[in-house]
Amino acid sequence: MAAVVSLLVAVLALILGLYGVSMAFRIARKPVDVLPYESGSLPQQHAFSRYHVRWYAVTLLFLAFDMEMIFMYPWAVVVADMGASAVIEMFGFLAILFVGVIYVWREGALRWS
Amino acid sequence: MLLSVVIFLPVVAAGMLLAFPALSNRAASWLWVIVAAIDLALIVGMWAGFASNSAAAPSGIVDGIAYEVKIRWIPTVDASYHVGVDGLSLPLIAVTAVLFLAAAIWSLREQKRPRSYAALFLFLQTASIGTFAALDLILFFVFFDLSIVGMYFVIAGWGHGNRRRSALKFFIYTFVGSLALLVGFIGLFLGSENRTFDMVALAANPPLIDSPLAAGLVLLAICIGLAVKTPLFPFHTWLPDAHTDAPAAGSAILAGVLLKLGTYGFVRIAMPMLPDAWQRWAMIIVIAGVVSVLWGAFTALAQTDVKRMIAYTSVNHMGYILLGLGAAGLVAQADEQARAIAVTGAMVQMVSHALLTGSLFLLTGVLFSRGGTYAFDRWGGLARPAPIFAAALGVAAFGSLGLPGLSAFIAEFQIFTGSLQAAPVATVIAVTGIVITAGLFLVALQRLLSGKTQVPNPAEEPANRATNGRHAGVVSPAEPTETGQQPARRDRNVTTAVDDDTVSQATFKDLHGRELVATVPLLVLSIMIGLFPRPLLDVIEPAAAALSSLAGR
Amino acid sequence: MTGMEAMSANPLDLLPEILLLFGAVAGLLLGLWTPRGRQARVRTVIVVAALGSALAAAIDLAQPDKAVFDDSWMIDTTTGVVRITVALATATAVLLASSWLSGHPRETEAYVLMMLAALGAIALAASNDLLMLAASYLLASIPLYALAGFAKDSRGVEATLKYYLMGALVGVLMLVGIAALMLAAGTGNYRELAAALPQAPTPLVALGIIGVLAGMAFKAGAVPVHFWVPDVTAGTTPVMAAFITTIPKLGAVAAAFRLVAEPFAQVSLDVPLLVAVIAAASMTLGNLAAFQQTEVLRLLAYSTVSQVGYMFMVVAVAGHSVYTVPALSIYLAAYAVTNLGAFAAASALPKAGQIEQWANGVRWRPWLVLSLTVVLLGLVGTPPTAVFVGKLAIFTATADGNLIWLFVLAAVNTIASLFYYLRWIAPAARAAFAGSDRQAGTDSTSVPVLAAPAVTVHATAIASVLLGIGAGLWLAVIA
Question: Where along chain B do its domains lie?
């Protein structure tokens, strides 16, 4: 019993201590209540701002490669057993995917200026 | 092979007409005449070959088919391009060719798009001959439907009055009929033992023998399909409109050939393939025939329009055919011979009606080209200015009412003789139809030919105003003196009553040139059949006997 | 998969599909380095690839039926027919579309999307596994969403949105259905489903069948998921409407046929009745709705709905009659030819939305009206056109499969359909006749008739008649 109580008190003291430290060192009294979502950096604009349309193209490109990875993981496990046919299939798949990349590139979606 | 040439020669010529637009309109019209003449000549040659053949082999509907060609078409359902002629189809093919030649000669002076007109008629000729020659249900249906399409455009494109409505009505009625027919054909196919659409095989081994209900329903579908085309009461309502608004040559073909497709369907399909059902329902067929006889006759009596009247007499005449065919199914009441006579009569009636009604419609075309109307009350006393026209009309009318010495007499006499034993009451009632027809034709002749000469002015006719005087325009280049001068010479008097001979002769020109060449041979043929029926009966009788024994199985 | 004969995984079995894919990829690459004015060469590559695919499929027909790639891809008569028809129809549609796309900034992309959609349609027909079916559904759908709104006008965008939302909804239903069936049977393979489904819990199977059939009905444009058809057809450009209403239908009907004939054949539910009701509703509602239309494209849209009804008749009796496979084979080909012709007629005068405008536009073109008449009467089923033979075969199969009521209803519907086709033929014929009456008159209001679609109308009219006359030959080739 005593052990449990002492553990609780210790945890409580730690939590209160952290709050205390936080209060002691805080810059503003009221924190920002809309938290940044872009990996921690503060948003420069409000959330409904417009993106350049290019962003969507890049997203799609990213998704294509993402899905390709999903396909490649199981492939990597069995490729040794399946042999040449599996290699040909995968490279055929990659070739078509690559045509997609070339298309995106030719269309100027990767030009970043 | 010869038969295929006969069938497809017209449509090939039609294709050539359309493919060479450099051909002048006149040349197109003449090409049509030439092709129709060649086709007729080939058929006459076929007839000669057939007649010599038939002495040896029976010219029935199961065996004895001459000029047979069979090429597989849709093997999965055993449909094939199977054509041939026998005693049932050959007379009808021949009369078809005769009528188309008459229509071609009649239309030599057609002014309105003569090239397309000729092409359309040639197409129709292929469809009609093909239907008569077909020995496969699907092939029959194909040609049957094509004839509807062709006729629709003839009426819609070259008719007068309310032509589009009439054409549409014709198309929809007959299309509904043809679909009922198709349903019936599929029923026959599914009911047949070997699953075939071949008419010869189906007639040899009738389908649905052991399921009377299904056979009855299939017969109902087929009968509705054919009754619309024939037409029988109560499916006839498209007929007067289509006839009235069709051009003269179109009416002649419609009445002379296309109506026969319906009656021919009864003898070719319904009777030999569903003998059981035909016998069971023969009384209904007889009654339908008699009702059509009377309805057609009485309605014709009430008409005020020459062309409508003739159209209704067609309903009447088709009724006789059904009476004969129905009587052939009454096996219990009549012996084999009487039934064969009834079928023979019905077949002769088909040929005879084609010739007589064809010529009657062409003759009413004369009225329309001269005066722009068919109304009885606008015409009168035509015998004086136009004796040849009067004589021709008289012969055609008397032939149509069944005067001995003309073809219709041979037909109707045999129908009544053959049916009397099987269905005495119905036959007696039907004979009264003859009396009414006689009366109405005499009244018509009296109204048109005797009395004061009365000729309407085409430009003033309501039918013409509806089509912007196009038909007056059709005639005017041929007879510039009449139509061109009339409005100037006479004031706004619509009808012109004349006593003076010289003036009236100038007003109503008698039959001449192409009109004469087109109509008179039809009447001569009718008289020939009336006086010397043997050559025709030699071909028909064996087939009719075979048919009545098939239907009596 | 144990106990089965060794499954073939020979890529040559998929040569027709590979050629289509190759055509799409090669066309895309070529188009990237081709100036806008000279994109005709892309068209050539695409058309050659499609024709090559059809040829390869025709050669492949001689081989016996086989299931390849782990039993997921069935190569039989139905697949062969869909392969040939889709490839040829796509080639025709590409040539037809050139009238509108020529000089378009995204010309290549349109052709590539058409090829991919065609590939999807073939995959639908060949699928022998539910998961394959789901993938094919997506492949056959997504390119079409893009094509529907290709003109980027407001009607097109609206059409795309409707098409997409409806497609997504039905796609989800289909996936639920597939999940249910796989849950019930433990497999997605058709052959194994056929064995497992009769023992599976009925509610699950019912849910699955309804979901999967809904997907096929959507792709085919059948009632009750037909609402996109008129909006997409009238909203997109006529050439794209021709493609959208022709190619995916072929694959979807074949896929539904395979489903009903194989995995759903033995289940305790009355699947044929369900399909028959879909067929009856499609043809009847399609016809009734078509009566009201005054727009050429909307009229054709409802006409395609009713046509799907006829095609589903043969699906309803799948496996119950020996005539079904030939009937399906002839009708799919006949429908593709005739429907492309009808839409080509609409594409010839893309500015003429209303029937009257169209009729006025062909005042000087009696030949075009003649071909239109052949095509439209062909859709009714007038002999000797191809659809007549198709309808004959389908009616026969339906009556043979003992669905007499459906057979009679279809005959009645055929008559009804005549009315609205005549509503287009009659004014056109009138205008053409009236036009040739006045030989010398000049009509300044006449709209130009586009050449490529006009040629397509003539070609399809001729092809329709030839296919009708040569139906035996076609059936002999595929059998």
Answer: 2-451+512-551
